[in-house]
């Protein structure tokens, strides 16, 4: 019954943002690597959520205090609905039709990824996808809070990532992840959110320095009230470059935490076999598809931008020509002419009474044509 209730709540949240297509599946497992994991299918907008059996995000004293202040009755419901029905759809649009999503489409994701790769040192290129997603999350998370009025499910997710980190290393957040969370708290976290998450902070001065530099250089407002200022697509590449420049020194050691429930990968970018194909919000996964390549190639061609460094140049040209090619209409008409021909032996001809001798006619080869006079 609990699973069915969660499914119904997630459907209600999905419909609230205008995403009325696609199915919702919530599955419970006895054994699972993560407490919660989910993905959106590349086609159909189907949302799939997997939960570890018996998991309750409200367990310890601090979490119970947080739940009381946030008026959370069911922590698992909040976690599933906020991560599955707000965060990942916001990468497209929140709500549907608003245009407020990051990266919004594969074309903009490609531009952001390019900016991140250019800003990363050579030995940190393996983190490009993780850093790109972290930047995009930093843009959309304040929007989720603004649209829904509450985004405590994301706070609980980060709290559990911190708990898992402490269980493994006896330390708090890794440097990159701590800076990422603090940036988000600067943009939308209230005092209750910050009080719960601060137990995972390490006090690393390099982290605070990077956060301040990003806030100053991008001019990120504290407790942003109108998030539309974050969705200027023309600024995203520059913003991503600044974000990456200041965050790159924090990638050593590499982050081990997940950015969201839809991301199985850790900072190293490694996944279990087959996991990467199904995971994600559906935008980044289009990067390796024919449709995605066509959108990127045509978008760059239309805007006068150079080739994407994320796709082989030949494949890009092929995708562009395929996108530009117009359908050729071919109309085939049936051209026939009817003609009736008498059937007769090829070695004989018609009898000519004026020239032919009747005595020489061979009765065994005689052919009678009913349309002519056959008298001799």
Describe this structure in words.
Strand 2 and strand 3 form a beta hairpin. The N and C termini lie far apart (102 Å). It is elongated and about 125 Å long. About 4% of the residues have low confidence. The chain has a 3-stranded mixed β-sheet, with helices on one face. The chain folds into 2 domains: 231 residues, no CATH class; 37 residues, no CATH class. The chain is 45% helix and 5% strand. The protein is built from 13 helices and 3 strands. By secondary structure, it is mainly alpha-helical.
Short overview:
The chain has 376 residues and is mostly helical.
Please, what is the average pLDDT? 85
State Rg: 34 Å
The N- to C-terminal Cα distance equals 102 Å
Tell me the number of helical segments per DSSP (H or I, 4 or more residues long).
13
State the helical fraction: 40-55%
Largest sheet: 3 strands, mixed
Major sheet: order of its strands?
1-3-2
Task: Show the helix and strand layout.
Layout: H1 2-16, E1 24-29, E2 36-40, E3 47-52, H2 61-70, H3 75-87, H4 106-119, H5 128-148, H6 152-169, H7 175-188, H8 191-197, H9 205-218, H10 233-247, H11 275-278, H12 290-303, H13 313-324
Parallel strand pairs: 1-3
Antiparallel strand pairs: 2-3
Helix pairs in contact: 1-3, 3-6, 4-5, 4-10, 4-12, 5-7, 7-9, 9-10, 12-13
């Amino acid at each position: 019954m609990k699973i069915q209730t969660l499914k119904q709540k997630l459907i209600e949240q999905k419909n609230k943002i205008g995403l009325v297509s696609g199915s919702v599946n919530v599955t419970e497992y006895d054994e699972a690597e993560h407490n919660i994991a989910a993905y959106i299918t590349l086609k159909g907008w189907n949302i799939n959520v997997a939960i570890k059996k018996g998991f309750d995000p409200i367990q310890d004293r601090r979490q119970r205090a947080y739940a009381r202040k946030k008026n959370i009755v069911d922590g698992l419901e909040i976690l599933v609905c906020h991560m599955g029905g707000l965060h990942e759809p916001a990468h497209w649009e929140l709500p549907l039709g608003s245009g407020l999503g990051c990266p919004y489409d594969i074309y903009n994701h490609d531009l952001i990824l390019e900016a991140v790769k250019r800003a990363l040192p050579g030995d940190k290129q393996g983190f490009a996808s993780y850093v790109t997603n972290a930047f995009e999350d930093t843009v959309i998370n304040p929007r989720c809070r603004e649209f829904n009025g509450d985004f405590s499910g994301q706070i609980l997710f980060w709290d559990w990532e911190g708990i898992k980190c402490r269980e493994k290393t006896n330390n708090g957040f890794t440097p990159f992840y701590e800076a990422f969370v603090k940036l988000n708290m600067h943009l939308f976290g209230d005092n209750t959110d910050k009080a719960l998450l601060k137990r995972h902070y390490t006090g690393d001065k390099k982290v605070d320095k990077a956060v301040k530099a990003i806030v100053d250089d991008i001019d990120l407002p504290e407790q942003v009230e109108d998030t539309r200022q974050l969705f200027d697509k023309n600024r995203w590449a520059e913003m991503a470059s600044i974000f990456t420049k200041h965050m790159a020194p924090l990638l050593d050691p590499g982050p081990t935490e997940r950015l969201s429930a839809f991301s199985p990968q850790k900072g190293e970018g490694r996944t279990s076999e087959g996991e990467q194909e199904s995971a994600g919000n559906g935008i980044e996964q289009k990067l390796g598809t024919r449709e995605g390549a066509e959108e990127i190639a045509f978008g760059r061609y239309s805007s006068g931008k150079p080739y994407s460094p994320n796709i082989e140049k030949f494949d890009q040209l092929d995708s562009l020509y395929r996108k530009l090619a117009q359908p050729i209409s071919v109309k085939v008409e049936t051209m026939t002419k009817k003609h009736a021909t008498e059937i007769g032996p090829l070695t004989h001809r018609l009898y000519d009474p004026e020239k032919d001798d009747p005595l020489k006619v061979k009765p065994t080869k005689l052919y009678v044509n009913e349309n002519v006079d056959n008298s001799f």
